[in-house]
Specification:
44% of the residues lie in helices and 15% in strands. It has a five-stranded parallel beta sheet with strand order 2-1-3-4-5, sandwiched between helices. The chain is built from seven helices and five strands.
Length: 168
């Protein structure tokens, strides 16, 4: 089995270093780049074609929503967020926009390698405590009810904007 290639993106050097350190002992993972900005992240994703992008960004950031839209239009890379969760709705919104998982900054040392492995193999990773919010979001989307999940939330669960764009 080939190593899972990982791009670790984040503005703060300490955050990128913590992620790199958490992945250092994983023999089946290889960090290929550590971009700081959104533009560098998109360029590195295009150049290295990683399996997983670990994206350390505040959940309410408009930049995060743009990056998720740009990175998740294809099957790869899969995006795993490292961000403090101010609300379940913000995490669910990021998942609805295409992220494949979420790890809190406090859980990086303990969980990041397992989360990257799971996401890299096509799975999802999030706290079990999010399940009620995810189910509620899925039910609301299924029945077409309006939600107020969070800032920047404009699409249905599977990112309806992207699907509509592909159907044109």
């Amino acid at each position: 089995m080939d190593a899972i290639t990982v791009l670790v993106s984040g503005r703060q050097h300490s955050t990128r270093a913590a992620c790199r350190s958490a992945l250092a002992d994983a023999s089946d993972m290889r960090v290929v780049a550590e971009p700081r900005t959104a533009a560098e992240t998109l360029a590195a994703a295009h150049r290295f074609r990683p399996d997983v992008v670990v994206l350390a960004s505040p959940l309410a950031s408009p930049e995060l929503h743009l990056l998720l839209d740009a990175l998740t239009t294809a099957r790869r890379p899969r995006v795993l967020l490292v961000a403090a969760a101010r609300s379940d709705a913000a995490v669910v919104t990021a998942l609805a926009r295409g992220a494949r998982g979420h790890v809190s900054p406090a859980g990086v040392a303990r969980w990041l390698a397992r989360a990257v492995g799971t996401v890299g193999r096509g799975g999802t990773w999030y706290a079990r405590s999010l399940e009620p919010a995810i189910v509620a979001r899925l039910v609301a989307d299924r029945h077409g009810r309006a939600r107020s999940a969070g800032p920047g939330d404009s699409g249905r669960w599977s990112n309806g904007r992207r699907r509509a764009r592909q159907e044109r």
